[in-house]
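Many introductory courses stop at the sequence. We go one step further.
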Amino acid sequence: MKTAVITGAASGIGACVKTRMKAQGYKIIGIDLQGETINADLSTDDGRRTAITHALDLSDGKIDRLILAAGLGGHLDNGQLVAKVNYFGAVTLLDGLKDALAAVQGRVVVISSNSAQMRTDPDSDIVRALLDGNEDEAMQHIGESHGALIYGLSKHAIARAVRRRAADWGQANITLNAIAPGMTETPMFRGAADHPVIGKSVDAIPIPKTRVASPEEIAGVIEFMLSDAADYMQGSIIYVDGGTDAQLRPDAF
């Protein structure tokens, strides 16, 4: 039986992907704060180590599919916590499970966001520290910043981390891509949309399709990205956002 490891599996997009992969016959190793196969706090070193160790044990060192869906929203006050989960909670598991993926020519999808290119300085000290893997320095630069200022930076950095690994991982026969969803009806989105201040910024983001996505729609694209039909995709960042990015950046791609 093939094995799929899914972070953020307890709710939102991760839960929808879990349902789809289970229907395909995969053994599911879900990772979340609680209620999953592995309960771990991905904002901490100990939690990340626990997740990696148990995932390797439960999979016998062979992981066919990895979906990194765990994340925190920009409506949270604690910007440091947002970066710890969204960037380090993803990239640490990504690298820690590489050998298990290479053993079976595995496939990976990392969840970024279309906000990764919204008012984001790609040369900021925060992004640089994240990409350098220097968590202490990144936290120093973030300081007391609100999650609203850090969310897009963390998603920008994780997309670049995927791109930077694409060549080496492709040579190791691992398919590695990221998806950049737009507004999707998940608990994280609802927290931002209902926030008395952040919600105003959410309302101002244009969506040419004039609606938010369902998590099932995003999960369907992820399912395709993990399938044999997407075998030649490598290092791609796939925007699934109802046209928001195209409207905001029509001449950039």
